[in-house]
């Protein structure tokens, strides 16, 4: 029996993937064309920093949707960091881990940069730092995609036959209860 909310979350993952792919396509085009002309100047630094920030924000948006679906419990004072950390946790009888610890470590670098970028109003970026972050951005794309595909597969199993769900160690009755509570709120 398919659950509409689980199906909706799967569709959110697919929609988010399209946005991440658009960000990455823009990055690829920027590196192949504009960056070749601009070089390491202020304009190129601003564009590169925005790409990294947009990519992370896209992922964080998906994490918020996953968290709302399964947990609804984040610390208010450091919710960005808390949210990212919670995605590394397997919640017994509820959901599998969303991202690996390695993916978490790389995404944490992007989160820190986004926080810095929001409150940094100068345009003289450190190119060593930007190149480091660009390396992390390129590194995390495949890592995150692999992790989210595993999680998406978990959701597909939840959406399918209870026998499949039970082989994952997830209590299907508990998941149904959470879905009911979520849809009632």
Fill in the keyword field for this structure.
single chain, 185 residues, mainly alpha, 77% helix
Describe the structure.
The protein has one domain (4-184). The longest helix is centred in the N-terminal third of the chain and has 35 residues, at 4-38. It has seven helices and no strands. The protein has helices at 4-38, 42-70, 79-86, 101-119, 127-158, 162-167, 172-184.
Tally of individual helices: 7
| Intertermini distance | 22 Å
Radius of gyration: 19 Å
* Total domains: 1
Shape: globular
Helix content: over 70%
| Main sheet overview | none
The string of secondary-structure elements, in order, is: HHHHHHH
In the predicted model, the low-confidence regions spanning at least 5 consecutive residues are 161-172
What structural class should be given to the helix and strand makeup?
mainly alpha
Number of strands: 0
Task: Tell me the strand percentage band.
Answer: under 5%
Mean pLDDT across all residues, rounded? Answer: 85
């Amino acid at each position: 029996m398919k659950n509409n909310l689980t199906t909706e979350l799967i569709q959110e993952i697919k929609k988010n993937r399209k946005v991440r792919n658009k960000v990455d396509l823009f990055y690829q085009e920027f590196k192949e064309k504009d960056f070749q002309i601009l070089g390491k100047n202020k304009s190129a630094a601003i564009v590169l920093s925005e790409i990294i920030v947009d990519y992370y924000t896209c992922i964080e948006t998906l994490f918020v949707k996953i968290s709302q679906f399964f947990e609804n419990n984040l610390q208010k004072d450091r919710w960005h960091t808390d949210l990212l950390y919670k995605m590394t946790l397997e919640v017994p009888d509820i959901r599998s881990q969303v991202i690996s610890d390695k993916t978490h470590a790389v995404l944490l670098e992007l989160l820190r940069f986004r926080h810095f970028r929001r409150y940094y109003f100068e345009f003289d970026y450190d190119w060593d730092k930007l190149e480091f972050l660009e390396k992390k951005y390129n590194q995390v794309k495949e890592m995150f995609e692999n992790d989210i595909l595993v999680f998406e597969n978990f959701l597909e199993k939840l959406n399918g036959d209870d026998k499949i769900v039970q082989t994952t160690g997830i209590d299907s009755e508990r998941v149904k209860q959470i879905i009911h509570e979520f849809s009632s709120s």
